[in-house]
């Protein structure tokens, strides 16, 4: 097995990451969970509050329904180490530009590398996906995100995620490790002050005074990423298959993008192991996994809509709506459908 990485070295961008129960179970199946979460914070609750501090939503976590929040760098290294332990060869400075459905990866230097299976995990702007005409729709959202780390200080909350809404802005505070907290700032594309990097700390502190101390610790780093979604007419063509953002990029509002990638990947491995007909196995895998992935993508988009599209002068109505909606068991089941999903191959 071989991984082709376009960068000259393996590197990670990002801050912290939400690992829900489904993601943790998937990492456990490949032997990466323990290392990934070794220094992570165990989250007890996720609270969503409005600009007045009124609670709109609160979600608790248990031993059987966990949320753990590691640094992305720790997760990334755990995945690399698990791959190397499994005998995977990693080739850097190797850029894939297309694939042949018969089973070949095509590099930018014209090389054609034969394979029993080509797995394309080349992101939302996947060249492999486009080479096979698998793209159905790529959509940009009205909102975007700045995600970064701030230093931890004594007395900081270390077990509760707090997501605060003010108009079309959101501030997300996530305990992450003994050294850092993960914070995310979300706003509309036309909020030029809000999307600026370095972060305009005065502006954001004015929107979220309860977090002014945390905001004051923000450094000069970070970057603005516009939200987007990807939909495909199919996740595979012949012996080529898409995973991750290449197949189902989504807004990060529910924190399930990476977790669904892990869940789908372990299911994919089970589907093709020992299969005599790879294309048929890929079709069956997609038929089994895609409904849940599509569901998460839709609900994540809808969650963002409540911020980006809801009229600001009706903010109090939004609070009452969320308080009511999230108290309905059916809504809870839909929001947490992925988190409570048992990955294929997990037998307890």
Question: What labels would you give this structure?
Answer:
FAD/NAD(P)-binding domain, 27% strand, seven-stranded mixed sheet, three-stranded antiparallel sheet, oxidoreductase, 32% helix, FAD dependent oxidoreductase, 11 helices
Task: Give structural notes.
GO terms for molecular function: FAD binding; monooxygenase activity. It comes from Carbonactinospora thermoautotrophica. The chain has 348 residues and is of the alpha+beta class. The chain has a domain at 2-41 and 71-134 and 234-308: FAD/NAD(P)-binding domain (3-Layer(bba) Sandwich), CATH 3.50.50.60. Helix content is 32%, strand content 27%. The chain is built from 11 helices and 18 strands. A 7-stranded mixed sheet has the order 5-4-13-14-15-12-16. The chain has a 3-stranded antiparallel sheet with strand order 2-6-3. Strands 8-9-10 form a 3-stranded antiparallel sheet. Helix 1 runs parallel beside helix 8 (257-272) and helix 8 (257-272) runs antiparallel to helix 9 (278-308). The longest helix has 31 residues, at 278-308. It is globular and about 60 Å long. It starts with a strand and ends in a 13-residue tail after the last helix. The relative contact order is 0.16. The model has no long low-confidence stretch (mean pLDDT 94).
Name given to the CATH architecture of the domain at 2-41 and 71-134 and 234-308: 3-Layer(bba) Sandwich
- The arrangement of helices and strands along the chain is EEHHEEEEHEEEEEHEEEEHHEEEHHHHH
CATH homolog superfamily of the domain at 2-41 and 71-134 and 234-308? FAD/NAD(P)-binding domain
> What's the overall geometry?
globular
